[in-house]
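Usage

Read records sequentially. Each one opens with the input sequence:
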Amino acid sequence: MEARGLTAREVVDARKQPCAKRDTVAILRGTTKVVAMKGKKVVRYDLKKEPPPEKELMANIMGPTGNLRAPALRIGKTLVVGFEEATWKELL
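and closes with the structure output:
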């Protein structure tokens, strides 16, 4: 982000302040798109046009500890979870 001259409005350290499922549901309010990345796998959801089953969505954005996976970034109404370099370059 810094390389592109972007700054975060709020930064939360996930190790000190984990985001549990109930907190993640609050983050999803007002979100219309989700981009979830695990390794090279990138999954995109349009929550307005074709909302996925909750179980599927949560499986892609929550980690094994039951918390929101990091890094997570909200860009407008899009929630980006995980890291895959090409996708981050595209979104930023």
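Summary fields computed downstream for this record:
- The longest strand covers residues 33-38.
- Residues 21-28 form the longest helix (8 residues).
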